[in-house]
């Protein structure tokens, strides 16, 4: 399922952006979207392991700035 990797990455990054911008109405959705996106990315394919690590670092960097 190659689409799950890209969908997972989209969920991760959009969730991180929502959390970074502190959009109150979308906060709960973003908190749920980030772990779901990470799970979808990790279960996608072999290449997803490297992408998953990159996404994890990017989310941590965006949320801790």
Question: What's the quick description here?
Answer:
The protein has 65 residues and is mostly helical. It is built from three helices and no strands. It has one domain.
Sequence stretches where pLDDT stays below 50 over 5 or more residues: none
Domain count: the total is 1
Helical amount among residues, as a percent range? over 70%
Coarse shape:
globular
End-to-end gap = 33 Å
DSSP summary, beta strand count: 0
Strand content: under 5%
Average pLDDT, rounded to a whole number, is: 80
Protein architecture, described:
The chain is mostly helical and 65 residues long. It has one domain. It has helices spanning 2-21, 27-42, 48-63. Helix 1 runs antiparallel to helix 2 and helix 1 runs parallel beside helix 3 (48-63). The protein is globular and about 35 Å long. The mean pLDDT is 80.
